[in-house]
Write a structure and sequence with these properties.
CATH class of the largest domain: Alpha Beta
Shape: elongated
Structural class: alpha+beta
CATH architecture of the largest domain: 2-Layer Sandwich
Oligomer: single chain
Strand content: 5-15%
Largest sheet: 8 strands, mixed
Number of domains: 4
């Protein structure tokens, strides 16, 4: 196979990259190449020195392990049943996978066989722009025609028949929209139609995999176009019933105006109605972590007032009651929905810099003053309420006096 171009990214000449490739080349000359994102990103202008480095090899796993160990490089069998070995050089991982072809697929996972044919390995990948290979000197190979032009122009196009690629692994539906969010310039019509036709196949995919993929999609600088396309295709409804992508569009615009970094959780919030019971169901359906679940429900807290226009005392009371993260989430989402972005930065700074205090008195103080039974809780709640109303200025002595003489 003749190379069609040559690249020179920073990662190519790093010590670890060259050491790993040298070890593999010693076992089989010209038998290993960089593949996928690290090559694609060079042409998308998003490459970084610390990008993940994936390597495809004609060596089978035992030979990969032997080659690495012979060079004094640690080898971990992280996915050996699928042909993947991870090399660790100076704490940096390099994922090395034997060339493969699919033997059997069921929409969730594939049974693979090893091959030495670069074209067979390329043909089982999802999109043409991900099927680029580069050797140790940076020479680029294109087993699938138009892969390089797709990478350069930002076209996310399925390899071969889109419906067939999706039936092999239905998670590729979400990957189609994720890659468009991160690298695409326009949505490919044939790919869009295939995703719409195959969307019900997502019901076969584990919720954890869907949530992981959705978070990656929502972490893109501006996934607005991809999310609107997801909604139009029916894919968004398939994975997140009742969600609407226009909320993400508004939030992305607010983020740009206020200089905020993307937050996948806030973008999920932007798509959903603020109703606790429904959000509880969403968190359960997507198998969110306990922390993500807690954050979603805290943002939706029914008792929290609109925080954009709150006076400082009321803002402090909200932070004390619901936590700074929930108040920040509410402030950002309210600003995006109302399109009143001016002042958002100052409000977020207020929230972030106000030190959330702890009540200076507790149950032990009440008991020491002779209170007992229900009196303890009632009196403490009254003292806490007075403390909040004072904008947290009542000190311990004043609060102890209230516990002693609650009336």
């Amino acid at each position: 196979m003749t190379p069609i171009e040559q690249i020179a990214p920073a990662w190519l000449t790093q010590r670890g990259t060259q050491a790993v490739m040298a070890a593999l080349e010693a076992a089989r000359p010209n038998g290993s190449r960089f593949v996928g994102g690290c090559v694609r990103n060079v042409f998308r202008g998003t490459t970084h020195a610390d990008d993940d480095i994936d390597i495809a090899s004609q060596l089978e796993p035992p030979a990969i392990i032997a080659a690495l160990e012979a060079a004094g490089i640690r080898a971990l069998p992280t996915g050996i049943e699928h042909g993947t070995i991870t090399a660790i050089f100076e704490s940096r991982p390099f994922e090395i996978t034997t060339l493969r072809r699919d033997v059997e697929t069921d929409g969730r996972r594939a049974v693979v066989a090893f091959t030495e044919d670069w074209a067979e390995d390329a043909a089982r990948r999802d999109f043409r722009l991900n099927a680029l290979y580069a050797d140790r000197e940076g020479h680029v190979f294109e087993p699938i025609p138009q892969s390089l032009s797709d990478a350069k122009s930002g076209r996310v196009v399925f390899i071969g028949d889109g419906d067939e690629r999706l039936r092999e692994d239905y998670l590729r539906i979400l990957r189609f929209f994720r890659f468009n969010a991160w690298y695409g310039e326009a949505i490919d019509g044939a790919g869009f139609d295939a995703c719409a036709r195959q969307r019900q196949g997502l019901q076969k995919i584990a919720a954890e995999r869907i949530w992981k993929e959705l978070k990656k999609l929502l972490g893109a600088p501006d996934p607005s176009i991809a999310m609107l396309a997801m909604e139009e295709s029916g894919v968004l409804e398939e994975i997140l019933s009742g969600a609407h992508a226009d909320g993400v569009v508004a939030l992305c615009e607010a983020e740009k105006q206020a200089g905020l970094r993307p937050d996948p959780m806030q973008r999920v919030m932007a798509m959903l109605p603020r109703r606790g019971r429904e959000l509880d169901a969403v968190a359960g359906r997507l198998k969110m972590s306990n922390e993500e679940h807690r954050r979603l429900l805290a943002w939706a807290s029914a008792g929290m007032d609109h925080v954009q226009g709150l006076a400082p005392r009321d803002l402090h009371a909200a932070i004390y009651a619901y936590g700074p993260e929930a108040v920040e989430d509410r402030a950002v989402l309210e600003a995006a929905q109302s399109e009143r972005i001016a002042g958002l930065g100052a409000r977020l700074s207020e929230i972030a810099t106000w030190p959330r205090p702890a009540l200076p008195v507790g149950g032990e103080d009440a008991l020491a003053l002779g209170l007992s039974g229900p009196q303890v809780g009632e009196t403490l709640r009254a003292a806490e309420s007075a403390w909040i109303d004072s904008d947290f200025k009542l000190d311990r002595a004043a609060l102890l006096a209230r516990l002693k003489s609650p009336d």
